[in-house]
Amino acid sequence: MQSYSLSQVLDAVLLRDLAGLIARDRATTASLLAHIAEVDARRLFVPAGYPSMHAYCVDELRLSEDAASKRIQAARAARRFPALFTALAEGRLHLTAVWLLAPHLTHEKADELIQTATHKRKFEIEEMLARRFPPFEAPASLRPVPAVTFELLQHAPEHVGGEPSPLVGKLGEHALGHVEYPQVEMPQRHHSERFFVQVTIEKSTHHKLRYAQALLSHAVPTGDVAQVLDRALDALIVQLEKRKFGGATTRQTQQRTTAVRRRCIPSHVRRAVWERDQGQCTFVSASGTRCKARRLLEFDHVDPVARGGRATVDRMRLRCRAHNQYEAERAFGADFMRRKRHEARVAAAESRARLAAETQARAAKEQFQDVLAGLRSLGCRSDEARRAAEFSMTLQHAALEERMRAALKFLGPERMRS
User: Fold this and answer.
1) Of 115, 151, 345, 378, which is the most buried if we count CB atoms within 10 A?
2) Residue from 70, 67, 97 nearest 84 by CA
3) Hey, what long-range contacts does 135-142 have (CB within 8 A, 24 or more apart)?
4) How many Å apart are CA 410 and CA 395, to the nearest integer?
5) Rounded to an integer, what distance in angstroms lies between the CA atom of residue 198 and that of residue 177?
6) How far is the C-alpha of 103 from the C-alpha of 34, rounded, in Å?
7) Residues 296-318: pLDDT tens digits?
């Protein structure tokens, strides 16, 4: 049995052994990241019964959520930039340094950033990155609150300044509004399952929150954000369930829905499958591990539709996206599915490009008409106004004001007509 008592070890030996352990730990950490990166790239967590590499590290390897996230991100970065493995093994970078650098590494900047971060402490690297890459917003966080005291998310309308506007739909500002919630200790109440939530929200979302507080002021006089969010989520869940499962349907409606298309899953089947599978992926690995995923779930045909599969309760199941794709690869082959996914990505990119081009064309047409109308209102003849407006459209990505100035410059004062 390993003994961890070192009280009898000489000082010099203790320091020597510690230095050796640190050196081996660095090499081990680099090797660990290499293994994580390779397992992640091969997606070996999928047949093992996990929807993601993070879930595999937490549930199978027993890492904490934070440790798993940090190592996975560092491993993916080191796989792209192998110099990180060497720097980590040699002690020039620590694991936190690799994790901090990971989001900012590019092939043009990697060597410089690694060199700059060499032998730097965490706060020094954070300061360097903050100067080069100014932070945009605070990350969202959620953590359990102790049972005896808890933080009450309370932010009544009077605390945020002014009366909320009922015209929520008009408040489309993109500025960020960070809401600070005071901590209130309530020793009389003991809640063992409460969570502290911190998140950065858009200014428009802040206005919606204030407006909801005002609408609920009779039912929730304090404007307690926790109660407002709870009621909002209740209403949202009802809407989402209707969208996901459909409402109550008659037998005739079910028959018509089933006959429309074999890929169409009737609402009563979706609801029955969801309830039977308890909203969880049903994939079970060879070792008996059931996937725990409850997000990004998809309704999967046990018998592929291409092979005559039908959307019935007993022949449908819930699968997370990773295991749905895994089943498809087992049924049709990895190369076939890889080609299909590539074709889908290409089609989606073409669709986005086509939509962007159509949107740009509509915007250009609207700007042309606006410039033309503006010139006509200034007294230009229609033929000259049209030529000037056409000239203004040769400017790339210009605002309406810029196009108007260009059109007026094209005309010149002597060509304006009263």
Assistant:
1) 151
2) 97
3) 137/176, 137/178, 137/200, 138/178, 138/198, 138/200, 139/200, 140/197, 140/198, 140/199, 140/200, 141/197, 141/198, 141/199, 142/195, 142/196, 142/197, 142/198
4) 12
5) 13
6) 18
7) 899 999 988 888 888 899 999 99
